[in-house]
Amino acid sequence: MSLRSLIEPVYERILAHQCTAVPRHVAIIQDGNRRYARNRGADTGVGHRAGADTTERLLGWACDLGVEHITLYSFSTENFNRDPGELGELFSLFREKFLATVTDERVHRYGIRVRMVGDRSLLPPDLLEAVETAEAATIGYTRFHLNIALAYGGRNEIVSAARRILADAAEGRVQPAEITPALVEESLADGAALPPVDLIIRTGNEYRTSNFLPWQANGNECAVYFCAPYWPQFRKIDLLRAIRVYQERIASA
């Protein structure tokens, strides 16, 4: 048994004891799957599957800690420029994982509602069908929320909301004086509006938020935590460290 394996459980308990304030909404930019695979001489599919395993572990950690909303930046609009072979692997993996939520015992035990956030018109039909199947199977749950950002771009989301509001105004359903921040939030994600983000986490040693939830995060002046591990290597310790940063931010506000 290594020294690290002895120390980490103790450190994790210390961090958990320190985290007395838990954010309601945590958004995560899952970065580093491809670099993780490349460092191991494996193809990108290995990295994406390892990242999916981390996502499943994260969901349990977050629910146990009481984080009500988790939003995962899984696939951006810019990611469509990737190699067709990698895209096929990713879409197949997304489809598999969405369908798995229907029978996942933890999803039903915790009461997790699964939703997609993003441009559905860009998804392959079989993936969109899997998304809608998962959403229908969990629509009655309200305790926890897992939001998967697919084909997502933050600026596109705001532009689409503006178009919807303008269309309603043209039809007389909305008056100019009624256009408020609350109305914009309601119009974001075509009615599937997310609550304000309290904490953004980005893995993979990248220090930018990459057009992720700009209205919900920047407007709320959320805490941001950047960490070095690639997403497949993300641990509960890293999540607890991020929550500690959030706690320090609200204490100094």
* Arithmetic mean pLDDT: 91
Mind telling me which CATH architecture this is? 3-Layer(aba) Sandwich
Q: Order of SSEs, N→C?
A: HEHHEHHEHEHHEHEH
Task: Quickly name the level 1 CATH class.
Answer: Alpha Beta
Determine the CATH topology: Undecaprenyl pyrophosphate synthetase
Strand content: 5-15%
What characteristic shape results from the CA principal axes? globular
Distance from N terminus to C terminus (CA atoms, Å) equals: 43 Å
Record the strand order, biggest sheet: 3-4-2-1-5-6
Radius of gyration: 19 Å
Q: Helical proportion?
A: 40-55%
Q: How many domains in all?
A: 1
Low-confidence stretches: none
The CATH superfamily bears the name Decaprenyl diphosphate synthase-like
- What is the count of β-strands? 6
| Number of distinct helices | 10
Helix/strand-derived category reads alpha/beta
Report the major sheet. Answer: 6 strands, parallel
Distinctive features:
253 residues, alpha/beta, 6-stranded parallel beta sheet, 6 strands, 14% strand
Q: What do these coordinates show?
A:
By secondary structure, the protein is of the alpha/beta class. The protein has a single domain (23-153, 197-252), classed as Decaprenyl diphosphate synthase-like (Undecaprenyl pyrophosphate synthetase, 3-Layer(aba) Sandwich), CATH 3.40.1180.10. Helix content is 51%, strand content 14%. It is built from ten helices and six strands. It has helices at 3-18, 33-39, 44-65, 84-100, 105-110, 125-138, 154-170, 181-187, 214-218, 236-252, and strands at 25-29, 69-76, 112-117, 144-152, 199-202, 223-226. A six-stranded parallel β-sheet has the order 3-4-2-1-5-6, with helices on both faces. Strand 3, helix 6 and strand 4 form a beta-alpha-beta unit. The model has no long low-confidence stretch (mean pLDDT 91).
